[in-house]
Write the structure tokens for this entry.
Amino acid sequence: MYRELSKRRKTGVTLQLLWQEYKADHPEGYQYSQYCLRYRGWKTTLDVVMRQDHRAGEKCFVDYAGMTMQIVNPKTGEVEETQIFVAALGASNFTYCEAPPSQKLQHWVDGHIHAFEYFGGVPHVAVPDNLKSGVKAPCFYEPDLNLTYKDLADHYDTVVIPTRVAKPKDKAKVENAVLQVERWVLAPLRKQTFFSIESLNDAIRERLEWLNDRPLSKLEGTRRSLFVEIDAPALKPLPQHRFVRTDWKINATVNIDYHVEYDGHYYSAPYQLARKKVDIRATWSTVELLFKNKRIASHQRSYRRGRHSTDQAHRPKSHQRLTWSPSRIIGWAESVGPQTGRLCETILERQRHPEQGYRSCLGIIRLGKRYDESRLEKACHRALQVNACSYRSVASILKANLDQQPLPRSKVTTLAIVHQNIRGAGYYNEETECSSKNHTEN
């Protein structure tokens, strides 16, 4: 009966219909009102809520509030909605909240950092919802955490245990904390106008201190007094340095020149890993390359796009004696033919720095192995004629067999038309001289 009623939207079954069927089988049974009363009494025994015991310093519940705040752009008057990050400790209900610029990963991580610093310690477990910023793939048994979020947990020596999907009772603490924040922090600020995130967070911090110092209705003391007594002594100490946010690039391919690209810059890896996949972990200051979860290279991060950071130890011994140069690239290209050399020279000249054209030239030269050096020479000649000086253009010419077709003819200059009714430039010169002469005589 309970299962049928739970699917009534699909089956159309109602309690009255079930009573009628029951009455047909049991004429002396309960009347409808008693039948409903007994069913509802039985139903209350099904949804038993387990009371959770929260140990001191064990769990910190984190989530975003449903209520948002508005920030007005002082120049344009445009209004932008901003989310509210909330964190609450399980034993004392001590609460932290802030207004981040967005729900993106970097602001999600920053919210945790600020909460831990506000608590003055680190809980043993962080319990988030299955927000995409923190959990890439929800799973009851082995949830797939975002790698940056996992790095945060490792840095602070804590663990992340997401709640079950669509189970708000798993994080009842933060649900209640969100309610208190919306009621006592955000609602009193609703009539104020804020022109920046900073001014909004200043006002939120003031109201937050009031909330944590507000006497509890069912317990003696305040959230702060319970925190000092229960949670604070049990928290893990903060690490010596604040977590530096990391960005990841998974399954990046190491090029044949044993460099891998990240954010427009190229970093070297050991030459044995050419054509293999590596993971990249980057901070604002360093870029690390990992192969099979083992770090195989570390570079100082560079923000110069198109440039290279090369560790000489990553080169094979034959390359350690040599360095790339424009003359070497052009010389290699000229060994294919003069047109190939001229095209590579043109490509290098058009770059702000020659190294930006090295890969294009190397790609063009290697096309001679796939097709034929004679065909490559014709394709380069055609690319120069139509001013399509790039690797993609040459590859497209060869793929379409355009190198085996005659070059497009240049435009034919149209001869001037000679006709007795056409005056020509001399007529106007004569007219100008006459006008000048008449003007002088007058």
Summary: Residues 47-51, 138-142, 411-416, 435-440 have pLDDT under 50 and may be disordered. The first strand starts at residue 59 and ends at 64. The chain has 16 helices and 16 strands. Residues 185 and 206 are 9 Å apart (CA to CA).
